[in-house]
């Protein structure tokens, strides 16, 4: 019964956010801060899932400047956990098929996110070139999930290199954002589903890498995030035992 109630309330609220968010974003068509505002609206829904989410931002988060934010992509609950970490003047890059999701697809487009066709390599490459241009000309940052798909409990999947090529081309740092594990943690029929931590890490300077060793760049960021993910999971496990 609790699960049915939760799902019903969440669906209604998500539709409302999508509808009113789309109307608001039409007024400020593709304004770069639309995405962060809508992401935080979804991010505030976490109590409805019986979660306590701690958001840890860097003290100087608003002074980092243009960058590529990268996050771990776990499951659909990312919408109420890590989404809250999207900063102002930040847009995301997502697959073109997202636009066909009822209500959400239109919101995703009208807020100013960038859609790419993953099935067409040449178009995807051109899009990433355009993304690089937008970073400098429009004074924006980009949020990406370098795993390319949801991990669904398989740990931090290997990173694709698109985000790192973009960081190198734009000459901006990469800022990892790590969310503690939520796989098999949430039972919608349970009142309390425990704590989740979302943490912004220190920027990683892209100038120490190049196009020739972009794979090394991606693997370095992967190691940094995997280590911190394990630490966050251990911290939560210790807290829950206490």
Q: Structural class from helices and strands?
A: alpha/beta
Number of helices: 6
Outline the biggest β-sheet: 7 strands, mixed
The total of beta strands comes to: 7
Description:
This is 1-acyl-sn-glycerol-3-phosphate acyltransferase. Residues 67-182 form the Phospholipid/glycerol acyltransferase domain. It catalyses: a 1-acyl-sn-glycero-3-phosphate + an acyl-CoA = a 1,2-diacyl-sn-glycero-3-phosphate + CoA. This protein has a single domain (49-94, 116-240), classed as 3-Layer(aba) Sandwich (Glycerol-3-phosphate (1)-acyltransferase), CATH 3.40.1130.10. The protein contains six helices and seven strands. It has helices at residues 2-27, 34-43, 104-110, 121-137, 162-170, 214-241, and strands at 52-56, 68-71, 90-95, 114-116, 141-144, 174-179, 195-200. The protein has a seven-stranded mixed sheet, with helices on both faces. Helix 3 links the parallel strand 3 and strand 4 (114-116). The longest helix is centred in the C-terminal third of the chain and has 28 residues, at 214-241. The two termini are 30 Å apart.
């Amino acid at each position: 019964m609790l699960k049915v109630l939760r799902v019903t309330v969440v669906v209604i609220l998500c539709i409302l956010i999508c509808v009113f968010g789309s109307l608001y974003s039409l007024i400020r068509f593709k304004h770069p801060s639309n995405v962060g505002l809508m992401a935080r609206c979804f991010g505030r829904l976490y109590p409805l899932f019986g979660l306590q989410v701690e958001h840890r931002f860097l003290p100087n988060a608003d002074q980092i400047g243009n960058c590529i934010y990268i996050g771990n992509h776990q499951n659909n609950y990312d919408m109420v956990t890590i989404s809250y970490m999207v900063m102002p003047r930040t847009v995301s890059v997502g697959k073109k098929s997202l636009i066909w999701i009822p209500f959400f697809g239109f919101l995703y487009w009208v807020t100013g996110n960038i859609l790419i066709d993953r099935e067409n390599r040449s178009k995807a490459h051109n899009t990433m070139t355009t993304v690089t241009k937008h970073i400098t000309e429009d004074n924006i940052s980009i949020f990406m999930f370098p795993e390319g798909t949801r991990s669904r409990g398989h740990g931090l999947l290997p990173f694709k290199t698109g985000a790192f090529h973009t960081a190198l081309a734009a000459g901006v740092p990469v800022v990892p954002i790590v969310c503690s594990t939520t796989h098999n943690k949430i039972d919608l029929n349970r009142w309390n589903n425990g704590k989740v931590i979302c943490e912004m890490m220190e920027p990683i300077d892209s100038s120490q890498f190049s196009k020739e060793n972009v794979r090394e760049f991606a693997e370095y960021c992967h190691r940094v995030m995997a280590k911190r993910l394990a630490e966050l999971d251990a911290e939560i496990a210790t807290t829950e035992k206490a």
